[in-house]
Amino acid sequence: MRVDTVTAFREAGATAIGADASPYAPALYHCDQHALVPLKDDPGYIPALQELVEAHDVRLVVPLTDIDQAVVSARRDELSAPLLLPDDDVVRTTADKYLAHLAFEEQGIDLPSTWLPDELPDDLQFPILVKARVGFGSRNIYRAADRDQLDFFLSTTPVDSMVQACCSGEEFSIDAFCDFEGRCLNAIPRTMIESKGGESIKGMTVFDPDLIELGRRVAEALPLKGPSTIQCFREADGSLQITDVNPRFGGAFPLPTAAGSRYPEYAIALANGERPEPRIGEFRPGVVMTRFWSEVCLTASEEGPLEPLPEDLPVAES
Fold first, then answer.
1. In contact, 230 and 176? CB cutoff 8 Å
2. Which neighbouring-strand residues pair with 132?
3. Short-list 47, 50, 20, CA closest to 33
4. Dist CA 168 CA 176 (whole Å)
5. Region class of 108: left (phi > 0), else alpha (psi between -120 and 50), else beta
6. pLDDT tens digit string along 231-276?
7. Strand 240-246 vs strand 298-300: parallel, antiparallel, or unpaired?
8. Which of 162, 183, 190, 314 could form a disulfide with 203 if both were Cys (CB 3.0 to 4.6 A apart)?
């Protein structure tokens, strides 16, 4: 789905080699070249990526979703190219929202109160959230209005979960980018005007020194390497509560890009062995993004594989 990210890298001067398990992945057809690979749990997945690295002299591997991060991170030494992900222990920590909570707690970073299901206090304040420890796209998250609902959701949820206090303030996301040393190069906050399925579809960049500093601090505390999306709430008491950190380009990637993030250029610089200087706080505030549907229409080529439908197909004779 990450047509926007592929396009931005190509516009920054990169040659994009797309890889996906499905021939129907639209981003494949916006790459310079693409290939189909096995599913991420298949033993042949990493060897297939390595073949692409060698065949195309790939200098940077960029995972675009949460789905295969754990797999490629654990076997990064087999790829023969730098991987735009944090170290493996950080990838595993951020993948498990409860482990991430503990890690940030150790750093003194504010978070909503969070418990494992068998450690719940008697004085819980409702409403409260049941959240999957490992997941994406706002899946398996339930809002319980009372203890009966909480018990029901904990007994019926299909995944390992945790319980977290609800935040009631304004929600923000911070799109950050770090170099391979864990230095934050920039952190760009944006509002969450509207989201669907956990992905922002409307938002605006804001210049807020506290949010910028929070993004830098969180990114360097882990440390992160490459892109990240840091989600937080500003509560009524002014505190900024971290609720999630994803070490990848966010679903609202076009917004920080339009605001001047230059994150694809940073990634290319890292691939070239350069050490770009931080530009924290340098971006254009007040840029608004509103998403819309688009599509790629495909047809079988003479060789068999799908390819984008030509704009000038011959008209069939009647």
1. yes
2. 161
3. 20
4. 24
5. left
6. 999 999 999 999 999 999 999 999 999 999 999 999 999 999 999 9
7. unpaired
8. 190
